[in-house]
Amino acid sequence: MTAPAPNNRSPIAALILGWILPGAGHAYAGRWGKAVLFFLAITGLLVAGLVLADGTNILPRRLWYAAQVCAGGPAVALTPVSQYVASRGPIDWADPTHEMGTLYTAVAGFLNLLVMMDAYTRLAYPHRPEEADEDKKEAA
Amino acid sequence: MWNALGSFFADLVSGNNPLWLYYPLCLVVGLVYKATKFDTPKKIVLAALHFFVSVTAGMLFLGLILYLISELL
């Protein structure tokens, strides 16, 4: 087990920032390239899922919302939009494209959980072993 | 059996099959997952492609088995 390095950046802050905006935890940790990649991938997946379902799938009354809300700020911000669109007419829950859209948004949430944990552990355990390091050891 | 196999692959490549949406999803999952593991862009992209190919091949194999079971039994 590696000990936390003396660092004035808080892992908890990285975790919370990563929830507020996907990738913000990595930006806080100084990893701007990854922050941009995570923001584009997770927010893109969330918006694509919403578009696929005609804007009617980020609804708090459904169990999927537990996964969707893990995508953080964008998911919370899109919730009233989705509620408004859903209230305007019937929703075809059995439509396969609608289901894929819901899956996209839920996966975006799960991916953001992974990214938040990564931002946390990068600050809490800066000397954690990386797969890349393992590869280098094997090659040597 | 050959007819079943043929219609399985014909269904997969038909334009209105929502399973097409699986490919970008799998690619993004691979990219994000591998970006948490590796640091260099080249390594991330290669690992994500490897992830995509192996998961897709596994899903195709499982799908084929399930399709043949449902068609032949």
Summarize the structure.
The complex is a heterodimer of chains A (140) and B (73). Chain A has 140 residues and is mainly α.
Please tell me about this protein's structure.
The complex is a heterodimer of chains A (140) and B (73). Chain A is an all-alpha fold and 140 residues long. Chain A has one domain (11-128). Chain A has seven helices and no strands. In chain A, α3 runs antiparallel to α6. Chain A is elongated. The two termini of chain A are 24 Å apart. The model of chain A has no long low-confidence stretch (mean pLDDT 85). With 73 residues, chain B is mostly helical. Chain B has a domain at 40-73. Chain B has helices at 2-13, 22-35, 41-72. In chain B, α2 (22-35) packs antiparallel against α3 (41-72). The longest helix of chain B is centred in the C-terminal third of the chain and has 32 residues, at 41-72. Chain B is elongated and about 50 Å long. Chain B starts with a helix and ends with a helix. Chain A binds chain B through residues 33-34, 37-38, 41-42, 44-45, 48, 52, 96-97, 99-100, 103-104, 107, 111, 114-115, 118, 130-132, and chain B through 18, 21-22, 24-25, 28-29, 31-33, 35-41, 43.
Give, in order, the helices and strands of chain A.
HHHHHHH
Q: In whole angstroms, how far apart are the ends of chain B?
A: 11 Å
Low-confidence stretches of chain B: none
Tell me which protein chains meet in the greatest interface and how many residues each side has.
A-B, 24 and 18 residues
Q: How far apart are the first and last residues' alpha carbons of chain A, in Å? A: 24 Å
Helix content of chain A: 55-70%
- How much beta of chain B, percentage-wise? under 5%
So how many helices of chain A? 7
In percent, how much strand structure appears in the residues of chain A?
under 5%
Mean pLDDT of chain B: 84
Please give the oligomerization state of what you see. Answer: heterodimer
**Poorly predicted runs of 5 or more residues of chain A:** none
Count of the separate structural domains of chain A: 1
DSSP strand count of chain A: 0
Number of helices of chain B: 3
Largest sheet of chain A: none
Structural class of chain B: mainly alpha
Instruction: Note the run of SSEs of chain B as H and E.
Output: HHH
Largest sheet of chain B: none
Output the structural class of chain A.
Answer: mainly alpha
